[in-house]
């Protein structure tokens, strides 16, 4: 499965790279975040817990929300 | 400007004014920490707060933390004005950066402003305005002049001309009438069109293009990955050097405050943001600009490879030529019309351009043959009639007349007996000459591959001035030939293959960079290739290479700018050159970021003179 999310208030390119790396450490999830388009693409076999991913994102940018 | 940005701006102005006031006031009096602390907190409270809360969440060394440590350090050393100035510059730079990023995001959006907003569908005799996504295949939509066609379909009523420039970059409108295919994203210019929808919105060309361009940035280029990896080691190294710089020379010389001051500068310079942001932005801008010209690049990585192109290999038929053949000669032992009928019937099911043109020339109704055996790259045998090139006849052991012609020779035989031959010839595309010249201007070597005989190949390549020609190739030997050329060129440079995607999908797929033409309407071509030219114009190849080279050179400029400025500031700071204070460090950080973003935005602009691309 491949799903695309929009990230609101993604403000820092370096943070986006850090988020991408942290989410990629989750089991069975391939994540790609494009800073310019504010798009996060997740590829997975079993759907990951989106709240968990949101939590990771908040760790790096506290007002960046998944839409 | 957003509300948040306005708020930051008012804090910046307030702080700047009080800063000046304090400097004037402090000129005649002793400097008081408290007077500086108030504006310092006004401008920096959120940075400090974020730094503290990040530490609690386990994140050290983000730029807010570094900026906080640097300024608090400066305060501890008694450098109050410097601490305030650094925070002020930092916030100003961040604001500029934010505005620049928003602006470039908006211009990217406007590059992709081809979304149809609504569709007018006819349901039970009534016209209904609805979301394009709500229209089903087979329904009828009405498009009035000035409106955007929302879904792909076929015209069932009305005539008009449509502007496909958003899809193809081609500015000349296309005339359409009943029976013609039209594509979503194009704008109806003159008459009212009634269209039968042939694809759901999600499968329509406009959705596919947008999806392609937006997801292109996910296939990150090597340069991008390099920068992200570089950033991961850069910050820790600079921070570590800052610690070393603060401790070791101080222990030796005892001049603690001087060396700590120099170390704090290092902390300010250690943020890699300028690099991390500007490189992907350059690539994305380049992809955006190309898409505006009807050149769809399916990933930043292909843009990067394209820039290194040394050799462009063209397929002949359908790429450099129109792929629509005219019969120029029929030589037959039986009635000529009968021979044409036999050939057209034999080629009944074939999608090959030669087969299509023979059927077109015959015009009359055909009966489908029962037993059909296809020989890819050679021809076909249907119901005992063999129709194909010399190698098919040789394979069947049929003796044929030796024919020397500048076209493609199709031999016809029935039950092992040679009947005659048909010569068809293709026409060179109007833009092919420009395409080859454009590539030569960029210093690129051109090669042409074809399944045709050498005479037919030469007829095209000599006119166009192509450097190298390989003829008489079968689909699989085309792949082998391409691999051979790639081998010769080596891994440093790129070999591009340009084809129409109709019968050379395997070649497109194996090529380092596969460019397909006429993407509108051919799913296979879009699938198999890395770059899709939406219209049939081979001259777009040179343009794409030009845009990719420009993008890469802008990305490299940004990398160099950031590294050189940061390097110089670090060096001067470590040496303690007078005048190079923390303000220089802030410039090396946010100032360079802003410059890099502004430079990267150049990638989005289209060059004025597109017909004669030159090296930048």
Describe this structure in words.
The complex is a heterodimer of chains A (67) and B (616). Chain A has a four-stranded antiparallel beta sheet with strand order 2-3-1-4. With 67 residues, chain A is an alpha+beta fold. Chain A has one domain: Alpha-Beta Plaits. Chain A has helices at 13-24, 50-60, and strands at residues 2-8, 29-34, 39-44, 65-66. In chain A, strand 2 (29-34) and strand 3 form a beta hairpin. Chain B has 616 residues and is of the alpha+beta class. Chain B folds into three domains: 3-109 and 219-281 and 550-604, no CATH class; 295-322 and 428-534, Rossmann fold; 326-425, 3-Layer(aba) Sandwich (Calcium-transporting ATPase, cytoplasmic domain N), CATH 3.40.1110. The two termini of chain B are 34 Å apart. The model of chain B is unreliable at 611-616 (pLDDT under 50). Classes of the chains: A alpha+beta (67), B alpha+beta (616). The A-B interface holds A 4, 11-15, 17, 32, 34-39, 41, 59-60, 62 and B 50, 53, 57-59, 62-63, 98, 101, 104-105, 108, 214-215, 217-218, 220, 228, 231, 271-273, 276-277, 280-281, 284.
Helix-strand layout with pairing:
The complex is a heterodimer of chains A (67) and B (616).
Chain A: E1 2-8, H1 13-24, E2 29-34, E3 39-44, H2 50-60, E4 65-66
Antiparallel strand pairs in A: 1-3, 1-4, 2-3
Helix pairs in contact in A: 1-2
Chain B: H1 3-26, H2 33-56, H3 63-76, H4 80-111, E1 119-123, E2 126-130, E3 140-143, E4 153-157, E5 160-163, H5 165-168, E6 174-176, E7 181-182, E8 187-188, E9 193-197, H6 205-216, H7 222-253, H8 256-269, H9 273-292, E10 295-297, H10 300-307, E11 309-315, H11 316-320, E12 326-332, H12 336-346, H13 353-362, E13 372-375, E14 379-382, E15 385-388, H14 390-396, E16 408-414, E17 417-425, H15 432-441, E18 445-449, H16 454-464, E19 468-470, H17 475-489, E20 494-499, H18 505-510, E21 513-517, H19 523-528, E22 531-533, H20 540-575, H21 582-600
Parallel strand pairs in B: 11-18, 11-20, 18-19, 20-21, 21-22
Antiparallel strand pairs in B: 1-2, 1-3, 3-9, 4-7, 4-9, 5-6, 5-8, 10-22, 12-17, 13-14, 14-15, 15-16, 16-17
């Amino acid at each position: 499965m491949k799903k695309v999310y929009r990230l609101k208030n993604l403000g820092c390119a370096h943070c986006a790279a850090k988020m991408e790396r942290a989410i990629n450490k989750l089991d069975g999830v391939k994540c790609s975040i494009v800073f310019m388009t504010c798009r996060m693409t997740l590829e997975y076999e079993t759907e990951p817990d989106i709240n968990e991913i949101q939590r990771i994102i908040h760790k790096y940018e506290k007002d960046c929300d998944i839409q | 400007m957003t509300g948040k940005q306005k708020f930051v701006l008012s804090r910046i102005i307030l702080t700047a004014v009080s800063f000046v006031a304090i400097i004037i006031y402090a000129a005649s009096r002793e400097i008081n920490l408290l007077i500086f602390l108030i504006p310092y907190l006004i401008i920096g409270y959120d940075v400090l707060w974020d730094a503290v809360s990040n530490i609690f969440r386990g994140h050290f060394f983000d730029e807010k933390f570094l900026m906080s440590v640097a300024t608090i350090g400066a305060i501890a050393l008694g450098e109050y004005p410097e601490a305030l100035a650094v925070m002020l510059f930092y916030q100003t730079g961040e604001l500029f950066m934010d505005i620049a990023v928003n602006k470039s995001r908006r211009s990217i959006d406007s590059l992709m402003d081809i979304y149809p907003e609504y569709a007018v569908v006819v349901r039970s005799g009534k016209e209904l305005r609805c979301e394009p996504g709500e229209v089903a295949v087979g329904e009828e939509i009405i498009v009035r002049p000035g409106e955007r066609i929302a879904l792909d379909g076929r015209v069932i009523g009305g005539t008009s001309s449509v502007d496909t420039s958003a899809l193809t970059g081609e500015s000349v409108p296309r005339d359409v009438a009943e029976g013609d295919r039209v594509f979503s994203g194009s704008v109806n210019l003159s008459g009212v069109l009634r269209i039968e929808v042939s694809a759901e919105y999600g499968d329509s060309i406009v959705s596919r293009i947008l999806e392609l361009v937006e997801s292109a940035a996910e296939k990150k280029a090597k340069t991008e990955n390099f920068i992200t990896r570089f950033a991961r080691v850069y910050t820790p190294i600079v921070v570590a050097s800052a610690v070393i710089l603060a401790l070791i020379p101080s222990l030796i010389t005892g001049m603690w405050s001087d060396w700590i001051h120099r170390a704090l500068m290092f902390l300010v310079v250690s943020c890699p943001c300028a690099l991390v942001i500007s490189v992907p932005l350059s690539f994305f801008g380049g992809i955006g600009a190309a898409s505006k010209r009807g050149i769809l690049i399916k990933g930043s990585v292909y843009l990067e490879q394209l820039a290194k192109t040394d050799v462009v290999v063209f397929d002949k038929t359908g790429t450099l030529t129109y792929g629509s053949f005219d019969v120029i000669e029929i030589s037959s032992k039986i009635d000529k019309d009968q021979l044409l009928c036999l050939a057209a019937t034999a080629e009944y099911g074939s999608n090959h351009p030669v087969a299509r043109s023979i059927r077109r020339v015959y015009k009359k109704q055909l009966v489908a043959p029962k037993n059909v055996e296809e020989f890819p790259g050679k021809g076909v045998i249907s119901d005992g009639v063999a129709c194909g090139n010399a190698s098919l006849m040789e394979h069947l052991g049929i003796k044929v007349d030796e024919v020397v012609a500048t076209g493609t020779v199709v031999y016809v035989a029935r039950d092992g007996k040679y009947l005659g031959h048909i010569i068809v010839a293709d026409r060179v595309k109007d833009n092919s000459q420009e395409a080859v010249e454009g590539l030569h201007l960029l210093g690129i070597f051109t090669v042409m591959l074809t399944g045709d005989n050498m005479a037919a190949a030469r007829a095209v390549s000599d006119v166009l001035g192509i450097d190298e020609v390989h003829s008489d190739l079968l689909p699989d030997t085309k792949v082998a030939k391409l691999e051979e050329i790639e081998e010769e060129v080596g891994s440093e440079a790129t070999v591009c293959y340009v084809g129409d995607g109709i019968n050379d999908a395997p070649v497109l797929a194996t090529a380092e960079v596969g460019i397909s033409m006429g993407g509108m309407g051919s799913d296979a071509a879009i699938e198999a290739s890395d770059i899709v030219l939406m219209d049939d114009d081979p001259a777009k190849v040179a343009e794409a290479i030009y845009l990719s080279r420009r993008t890469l050179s802008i990305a490299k400029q940004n990398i160099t700018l950031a590294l050189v400025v940061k390097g110089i500031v670090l060096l001067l700071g470590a040496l303690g050159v007078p005048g190079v204070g923390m303000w220089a460090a802030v410039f090396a950080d946010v100032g360079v970021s802003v410059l890099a973003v502004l430079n990267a935005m150049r990638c989005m602009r289209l060059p004025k003179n597109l017909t004669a691309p030159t090296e930048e």
